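Predict the 3D structure for this chain.
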Amino acid sequence: MSIGTTGPDDEVGSRRRWRLRPRTPDAVVVAGYLALAVWLTNRQWGQPDRLFHQAGDQILFEWMLAHAARAVVRFEDPLWSDALNAPGGVNLMANTSVLGLGIPLTPVTLLFGSQVAFGVAVVGCLAGTATAWYVLLRRRLVESRPAAALGGLVCGFAPGMVAQAGSHLHMAAQFLVPVILALVLVPDRAGGTARPAGSASRVWWPGVLLGLVVSYQAFLGEEVLLLVALATGVITLGYALADRATTRRLAPVVAGRIAVGAAVAAALLAYPLWFQFFGPGHYRGMPFHAHGFQLDAASFTATARQTVFGDHRMPALLAPNATEENSFFGPGLLVLALVVTVWLWRRPLVPALAACGVVFALLSLGPQVRLGGTATDLPGPYRLIAGLPLLDHVVPARFSLVCVPVLGVLLALSVDRVQRQPAALSGRPDAVPVRLLWAGTVLAALLPLTPTPIRTVPVWPVPAFVAEGTWRAYVPAGRTVVSVPPVTNAGRSPAMLWSARTGLAFTAPGGFFIGPRSPEDPRARWGAPDRPTSLLLRRVADSGEVPAISEVDRRQAVADLRHWRAAVVVQGGLHHGDPVRRTVEALLGPAREIDGALVWDVRHLVD
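Done. Predicted structure below.
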């Protein structure tokens, strides 16, 4: 119930002022987080032909950042866009639109482009999350600055955070999580400094601020918000069992804050949530089985790919993909966390955190536990919640992200305790200094988690025909630029990358998003509904085999171009570029090479 603690250790939190005075050491800590985040992203700065390892997801978020900037400067609807999936459009509130990042980054996006904005967002998510946890630890939980700095480092740069940051901005943007926890979980000021439980200063204003922060988090990532709500509930229950007296004393304040915050958030999010679930382009369910994205039980003691000791073989067996390596804490840190839990068990927050970590670790194992890459007969606790509303949309592997701050806070508490009471642990004046011994133990546990720069993969550059605006001479108002392949549910959508890098300058069919199967069928699918020509060209792009083209195929191509309101068809760089070119020429006639692209002017066919 209280984010502070009770007993002798809690006097630190009760004596601390609510605000920290700006000090050089604090600035140094934050600068260190920023420097580390910049270094982790260095492989993409100034490299327009490189994307982070999950390239399709970066294309998606670059496009979302470009859309947010366009919505700001043109006063367009931020929840909807016609720039993709022509002629249907996309419900962006029903996708990961990250407006909470895109709108503040509008100046960066307009001045430097979507790729730089994405890099700045990644740096901000990693360093911002670490900084937020550092501030919370310093204000509420620990006296030692090194302890808070170390805790923030783990919370912001654990393997799961680095893996998510390279692809999923909505999962990496966790810098408001400590703020939410600070507003919900009340510090225990048992020393007489607390005001009456029902006062506005302890309920109403924090409750209003909680509602505002929760609303903002919804525009960063709803999935993180759901995980925070669940984790807060588990921590509250664990704390209540550990310290019932404090829980009874603080329960009215916590309940009041939550009630006020819920009312404020409900008022602010009513329309966006309606638009998400019932507006145009809404969908039902998910285009994939979420329960299939689970972690292997052995992943918790393994080493992630993007660490100093990481490899690419074992993690591939233990996580659904490189982006979901959310555990991979290594045996040292888990053993250390167990020791800290036993050692500090009398501090009520510790068993509450430990219970939270265990619960969410078990949930991340999915409906059937896997061990070492092999399915076992053990049912996973995830089965108990898999059918519940909202929870059926959560990827099980992401539950283990809750373990990251749990371990970070436990580590900070232990370092703070050692720094403040070394003699109590050594027992003898001539013993090996406890601080030095504990520092060596912590460093040994954290060394396998040391991150390396986020991996990148090559991407075909945007052809000059698109990047330099040559296409404008061919595309009248109301018409579209059709990339080849025109519609794809694959992550690497040429049209989406070109659109993002040009600031949504043109309208295109297709794209990488989640939408309904058709206007009559709201079941979810990746990308736009299929058209015969898009399926044909997708097969050629994947296989490199040129099919026999009939007159029926040609007529269908014209019908599809009319459906997309096409003006030009453009082929940039492709892995099987020559087979695709030959196929399109069999459908539409010879191409013209203009500014690095193959171009088919189809206005005469569509008109």
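Confidence is low (pLDDT under 50) at residues 5-20, 190-198.
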